Amino acid sequence: MKGSTFNQLRIFEAIVAEGSIRGAARRLSMAAPSVSLALQQLETQLDLPLFQRSTRKIELTEAGLLLSQRIDGLMNELDLAFESVQDLSSQPSGVVSLNLPHFAFECLIKPIYAEFCERYPDIELELYIDDAKVDILETGHDIGIRFGHMLAPNTVAYPLSKELKDALFVSPAYAEKHGVPTTPDELQGHKLIRYRFIGSNKLINLRLNNNGQEIQLAMPTALVANNTDVMVDAAIQGLGVGRMALPLVEAKFDKGELIPVMEDYWLSIPALHIYFLQNSQKTKRVRVLVDFLKEKYF
Length: 298
What we know:
Elements: H1 3-18, H2 21-28, H3 32-46, E1 51-53, E2 58-60, H4 62-71, H5 74-86, E3 94-100, H6 102-109, H7 113-119, E4 123-129, H8 136-139, E5 143-147, E6 156-159, E7 164-170, H9 172-178, H10 184-187, E8 192-195, E9 206-210, E10 213-217, E11 221-225, H11 228-236, E12 242-245, H12 250-255, E13 259-260, E14 267-269, E15 272-276, H13 284-297
Parallel strand pairs: 3-4, 3-5, 8-11
Antiparallel strand pairs: 1-2, 5-15, 6-15, 7-12, 7-13, 7-14, 9-10
Helix pairs in contact: 1-2, 1-3, 2-3
């Protein structure tokens, strides 16, 4: 395959992913006319149209769909192959993108990312804070961090934390005004500060550990938010009962800003894991970040 054809296929793949010429141009940091010209050259070489174009949208033709299916994943494999060979004679460099929820950033990455950047000055670290469930293959990220039960299939994963606890808590002012629940029945008489997933728009249901059996509890809602900082602040201000992974509120417990309640009923949460595609670890820029995180937490 000619080098020009390889580049044309990369551009074609970007157009498919972005759904437009301009979107592909932004993704590849190219001028839109150059992207359009590369597509025309590829279509001329194949003697087939790959897209149906209109003023409003661009859609794959049958030939375009077949080509997209055939090269799916292959371009990434070729990019990784070239990069892994080039890495043999160079210092770690380039862009490494890490996708993770806000909770994982606060607990795992915030204390150490500056050290990583100082250790590898030629690496450009990109942090994508996203609480939605993400497929790193589809989104183009190199590495992800998620709870063990939310890992993408066909990936390599390592635990970065122990099993966590899903804590329940109230503020001292709330406890003085409304009392502290001690059983699930009493808890249902209180209002819950709830989290809504950004990606699915679903609310997290409250689950408890009742003598080793998981139960789900319905409670009136005090506030809904899609940000954990907002939820903690709402609890501190006494709006209702908060629930959160323990590491995010442990310091608040120590300072007396929040009071843990019903600890015997806290449910366990699977450990946080780092995960990535098998072949991506062959590139030095990805491998050094994986090794750094394993050094700190594994």
